[in-house]
Amino acid sequence: VQLQASGGGLVQAGGSLRLSCAASGHAFRTYTVAWFRQAPGKEREFVAAFFRSSGNTYYQDSVKGRFTISRDNAKNTVFLQMNSLNADDTAVYYCAADRGLILSSLKRKDAYAYWGQGTLVTVSS
Question: Is the pLDDT of residue 26 over 80?
Fold first, then answer.
């Protein structure tokens, strides 16, 4: 599986962006797909995920109610809609995928075998 993240950019605080993660390969709908982010000088952290094909979604507490993860299986694409952005959301955002990941490992970056290249989101205050 190859992942291509896009949609980052510069946005003012309070604004919105939608990130996309396009995947190659079949059976993508059976993969767990997640978004992580890494701010300058910080560890890469979990943001949101779809667990396999269950339809269940999971979020980091700081983005709940502001970010929404969704997927279009026909297009092999996962989206991250980000609303009410603030300066703390500034980071490089990565999409990641794995087929065999178990739920207890969902938020661990080392549990994912496939990574996109990252897309930069900058929120100006």
Answer: no
